[in-house]
Amino acid sequence: MGTVETMTMKEETAADLPIIDAHQHFWDLETNYYPWLCDPEPIPFRYGDYSALKRNYLPPDYRCDIGPNRVVGTVHMEAEWDRADPVAETRWLEGVAAAHGLPSALIGHAEPDRADIADVLAGHARSPLARGIRHKPAAAARPRDAIRGARGSMDDPRWRAGYALLEWHGFSYDLQTPWWHLDAAAELAADFPAIPVIVNHTGLPADRSAEALAGWRAALETVAARPNVALKISGLGLPGRPWTVAANGPVIRDAIAIFGTDRCLFASNYPVDRLAGPFTTIFDGFRAVVSDLPLAEQRKLFHDNALRIYRL
């Protein structure tokens, strides 16, 4: 584990397909500062109480959590490290990878509208593990409050000027935003077609009412029209409810129907999604939902798309 492997299709069954976990986190709270995990006052969190996450989580913990799943590589997603020095997280992760063989690649943090964005991107780019950045643009809390053009949003000219620098480094952009801002994401992707965009956590369909899911599907269809956009199927936990196929299967099937098997990828969001269910429960759920697909299509979702999109 820790290296990206390949197998011929005739050697594989659905149960032993290789996995590249396209979204996971490590943290060491004894040596590094993550405000949301280290500060005594909790932040508003979509899963509710997250106090169980306030302990170190490193590759040995992750390897314990994955159980029998054949994880052959991972992509580390920035974990809300101290925003004063986001490149320090990348430097720390290089040491983690050297010591433990994970992660296989990383996505750093950068605010496109910060004054030193060029320096931050250059700092990340010095790491051979770096593939891009994640940033959560300014967003409204509810669909009815969504407006276009807000400062710090994907429409903000200063934000876009910094975003444009990703192309120079060959970086992708991991976008975490509620689905009601995916119209702005579609325009962003159209205006910068050379920058791959990976929408995080399935577009955040937290409200599972019929009305909200209809809005979510329409938003996915809008952004899926841009060929440089992919969708990471992850982060589907619901507050106070266990991760089940009954709850999440319809969302997963709709997402794949809209984006297709060439542009969707499964990910654990561990250890955060430990609040929703065990790693094996989540990945067994993914397998169950797509069990009717040809094995080659399943392999894309679990492994091949992450291999290509994150250039492992």
Automatic annotation (TrEMBL):
It comes from the Bacteria. SUPFAM superfamilies: Metallo-dependent hydrolases. Gene3D superfamilies: Metal-dependent hydrolases. Pfam families: Amidohydro_2. This is Amidohydrolase family protein. Belongs to the metallo-dependent hydrolases superfamily. Residues 20-312 form the Amidohydrolase-related domain. GO terms for molecular function: hydrolase activity.
